[in-house]
Amino acid sequence: MDESDLPADLRLLWEQRDRPRRGPKSAVSLESVVLAAIELADAEGLDQLSMSRVSERLGLTTMAVYRYVKSKDDLLTHMGDAANHVPPEPTPRDWRGGLEQWARGIQANYRAHPWLTRLPVTGPPIGPRQLSWMEAGLANLAATGLREDEKLAVIQTIHGYVRGEAQFSAELLRAARNQPPPTVTYGQVLRLVTAEDSHPAIHRLLASGILDEPTDYTDADFAFGLLRILDGIDRLVAGSGR
Question: Which of 1, 68, 165, 189 lies 20 to 30 Å from 112, alpha-carbon distance?
């Protein structure tokens, strides 16, 4: 198998990264089309993204944009890769600290571009920037003695957690923007619709008062789950005997 066997859109992803730039840079390129699409999605959300809106942003006709990407799906593929920042440098001698920073780096990508959580998952990571994150995650585990399948499972677990929490946080924020401020707390609602004999566990939680506080998703909420995952990985590393 050689590069000619790769799908055309995948070849384009990698060719754009490796292709040397000769002569004056064109005002319009695949890179500028993708950047315009990312800026549009950041500003107005993925629902407002269309080939015509991207072309308007660039001052082009819609057909001109199709010179660089053959479809909206292709454009989304390029956006999903290009929106990733550079991963933090791996720290194999401190795998736990390295993975925490790796996870927070992924969280930062999602916070900068909330629409990333809405992109369809069509397969494993394959773009240049996506694979740089995969490489960094695995490199943090190089000195743990874990098997290769265990290393892969570790970074999949962490990435799945971060993506899920990012999606939850973005949806809470979107709901808060689209709805009037609540006049009652979640705790007050639960006290009306539940009883202590039918929902004793919920009423013990209600007694703590935590459900009467604002329901904003905080960094402490994210950190709690991430640290518990790292605790579990710590036990896996310690129990491997390697």
Answer: 68
Dist. CA 165–CA 221, nearest whole Å:
9
Geometric angle at alpha carbon 67, from 26 and 20, rounded to 5°: 45
Tokens of 223: 């950190």
The sign of the dihedral angle between the CA atoms of 93, 95, 100, 105 is: positive
3-state secondary structure of 233: helix
In the structure encoding, which two tokens stand for residue 194, read together?
């539940």
Residue type, 232: G
CA distance 186 to 169: 17
The answer to whether 240 and 145 have CB atoms below 8 angstroms apart is yes
End-to-end CA distance of the chain: 36
d(Cα 188, Cα 202) in Å, to the nearest integer? Answer: 12
State the pLDDT at residue 26.
56
Name the residue with tokens 């315009």. 36
Amino acid identity, position 75: L
The DSSP secondary structure of 40-59, one letter per residue, reads HHHHH-GGG--HHHHHHHHT
Axis crossing angle, helix 95-112 with helix 148-178, rounded to the nearest 10: 30
Which domains are present in the chain? 3-82 (1.10.10.60), 92-239 (1.10.357.10)
Residue reference for tokens 């973005």: 170
